[in-house]
Structure formats: C-alpha cells, structure tokens
Amino acid sequence: MAVLLMLAAILSACTKSDSSASNGNASSPAHTASSESGKAGASEDITLRMTVWGAPEEVAAYKEAIAKFEKKYPNITVKLQHIAADYDTKLTTMVAGNDVPDIAQMESGSIAFPLAEQGKFYNLQEFLSSDPEINAERLVPNITYSLEPGNIIGLGPGPESFGLFYNEDIFKDAGLTPPPSKASEAWTWDEFVEVAKKLTIDSKGRNATDAGFDPKNIKQYGVNIGTWWGSYSNFIYSNGGDFVSEDGKTFALNQPAAVEALQKIADLINVYHVAPSPVQAKNIPATNVALQTKKVAMAIDGQWASAGLAQSKFHFNVGVIPTMKTPMTTVVCGMFSMFKSTKHPKEAWELMKALLDPEASIDMIQAGTWMPSYKDWYTDPAMLAKWTENLDSRPSGYKDAIVDVLLNNSHQTPTGYVKNFNKIMDIVNPALDKVWLGQQTAQEAMDSIADKAQAQVQGRRDVKG
C-alpha cells in the first residue's frame, strides 16, 4: 500500500457531505449483534459517510464493498470520500469543524491514537463481543488496534507482513540454493550474509568474497533492505528486542538485543558491502524493477511487493526472512475506525464488516496488494486456494514464507502499542542515519539519544494502567 511503501508512511485518505438524512438514534453498540444485522437501518433512509486514502485499486475494492452493502441494505446510502493527499491534515480539519464521517480509514502511526485519546472513537470491542458473525478470534493476529486492553479503536482490512523476495535466475546462474520458505528452516543471519556476499558483484564480475572485490563499483547488490522502522523491526523482534521495555517504562533501542540487530543491518552496508546505503539506495528502483534488472539479487520487503513483481514477468519467488533468534515478521496495516459522533452505530458497524470481508477486496488480494483479514481464509484449504494458487502474485514459497509466518510468527507494528511512538522516533531516526552511514556504531548512536528518547516514553498500550 502507498502508505506502507512510504513509511512506508504506508498510508495517508472532504468535502462537506450531507449526513443529516435522518433522525437516527445512536443506540448502544451492544444491540448491533448480527441477529439484527439484516434489519440494520430498516426503518428509515440513512446516509453514512466514510473517508479513505489509497491507490485506485484500493478505492475500487472499497466501492465494490459499498455496492454489495447498499444492495443488502437498500435504505442505506454510503458516501465515499477519497482523500488522495494530506489525509491527516484534511481529516483533522474536518473533525475540528464538526464535519465528521461515520467511518474513517486511519493509520496507527499518525492521528488515530491522538483522536482516540480525545474520545472520538467507539470501542469496537463492544461490537465484537455481541456479534455472532465476527469476533476477535476470527481475525488474523495483530490487526486490531487498542487504546488500552479492552478498548479497540480500529480493525485492519488488509494485513501486510515481510518476506525475502529474490530473482530465481540469479540463484540458478550462481549455483546457489534459494532462500528456504519454511520458518523452521530459515537462514541464520550468518548464513544469509554469506549468500549475500556471493551475490554481490562488482563492475568486473567479482563477488564480495573474492580478492580484489571493489565495493565502490557494485553492479549487483546481494540484498536491498530498507532502513525504516518497519523493515528493521522484523530483526529487533527476531532477536528478542523491542522499542520500549516490557512494562513500557524504559527506552529499549539502546539495549543489547535491539542494538545487535541494528548493528548487523548496518554491517550489511558498511562492513560486507552487500546492501546499498541510504544514499546509494536512491539509485535502486522499486523491488520489482530492482530484482528484474538484477540491480539486487534479494530484497526484504513487504508482501505488497507481490503485486508489482507479478506484473514484471520474470522468475521471482519469496522465502522467509532470515532469523536472528526466532522467526518473526512485523504486521503492518491501516485500520477502519468508527467515530462516536455517528448517529447510526449499528449501520456503521455493518458497513465496517462489509469492508473487512475478503470477498469485497478479492481482486486486490489476488493481485498481491493485500492479504485477507479473516483467519479462515488462511486455514481453510478452499479459501486459501482462492488467493494463493495459480496466480502470478503467489509464487511457490508464498504459503510457507508469508501465510504461515503471519499466522504463527508475527508481531504487531510498534505504532500499535508504543505510546508516543512518533515523538520517540523523531529522536531515534537522525541518530540511526549515522549508523547506516557508518559514522557511529548502533550502541554509540542509541546511547547518545537515550536520555532524550526516554523523556518521550509514555508506556505501552498493551499494558493495563
């Protein structure tokens, strides 16, 4: 998704719409169970408003979901507002002007939690607890966002995780075994580095293990790995580290587990010369083009890269990302939230359910942009086959490397549970730039800003109190 790719800010979705169509009663969400779902809004004409960001294919999926919803509930009209740019600013202005949608797409790393702290959103736990059609257990792990335990403010419609994408022909030509797809067989970090060395080629055809290898004139990097938090969080979690301590009281990126992970990533750039620096990466195209044109042999990227790779028409595949201590991937996704100001919570909840339904976004899921939010689409063989088999976007390693890992070896995005995450990272990111450029060790850089970062630590959302 666009916002993932940029944070991948991975996400940014006003005209003043007429939402006064009825004198609706904002009844308790406890009465929104699906025993009434077929009756939602049946007694009056209702208009619901929702705001989204997203690429055209994402908006098309929303429109399809809305069309099915309106067919089921002919008395309900949904006005979709696609905000293509400056989403947070525009939505904040709308809220300030009391021009609020019923449902909004939100991003956990930006304004979602500040608005939740102002009491703007319904607690969706009340709906999930009383609806027999959908509950928290039916959703895949790590796509519910909570202000605190028991207070769910958003549900993610399209989870994303990370994989090790690669050009099969490069491995074949080099006589190397491709990355394993099963988590139980994942490369250790050292094994990964050794393969990356052999696949890093200078302008004279020497690899990074050869005498005379020229790291200043590289034509093919062994791997491209992003230096934003979404990418390196996979390895911090794999190594047993975190952004803050388990009790949420202490800055943790300067602690041994996190420091070791950060340093190993930096060493790919500055010691082994198998990955481009942030400066060099500016000349590396998107993952699909970089792999196709052999600018890189492997790329650690989000599964959303599958969509572009499928269109590039070359032999690509995906393996499980290398392991430091335990297999792990970070799950990132946008969410849908319901504003408390809605006059029609029952109907808005039914709309949210329609948006979460994988059938509504099946084209986008099959194309490789999203994954389903319902767990049975991963565990039921017939449902799994609908979006993983006989598709250009789903190579042979996909089920093991992406599907199974998300279900069994995944971690929530730090934006979902680290309070004040952006303020902490505003301090961390400039320090990490020095690490990626080889100017400081990870320990030196994180220690240098630890006090300032600690001053911004406000706790964890997954810890009561």
Q: Describe it for me?
A:
The protein is 38% helix and 14% strand. With 465 residues, it is an alpha/beta fold. The chain has a five-stranded mixed β-sheet with strand order 7-8-9-6-10. Strands 2-1-3-12 form a four-stranded mixed β-sheet, with helices on one face. A two-stranded antiparallel sheet has the order 4-5. Strand 4 (144-148) and strand 5 (151-155) form a beta hairpin.
Give structural attributes.
alpha/beta, 465 residues, 4-stranded mixed beta sheet, disordered N terminus, globular
Produce the secondary structure layout.
Layout: H1 2-7, E1 46-52, H2 56-72, E2 76-82, H3 87-96, E3 103-106, H4 112-117, H5 125-130, E4 144-148, E5 151-155, E6 162-167, H6 168-174, H7 189-198, E7 201-202, E8 218-225, H8 229-238, H9 256-270, H10 278-281, H11 287-292, E9 296-302, H12 305-311, E10 316-319, E11 329-331, E12 335-338, H13 345-356, H14 362-367, H15 376-379, H16 381-388, H17 398-408, E13 410-412, H18 421-436, H19 442-456
Parallel strand pairs: 1-2, 1-3, 8-9, 11-13
Antiparallel strand pairs: 3-12, 4-5, 6-9, 6-10, 7-8
Helix pairs in contact: 2-13, 8-9, 18-19
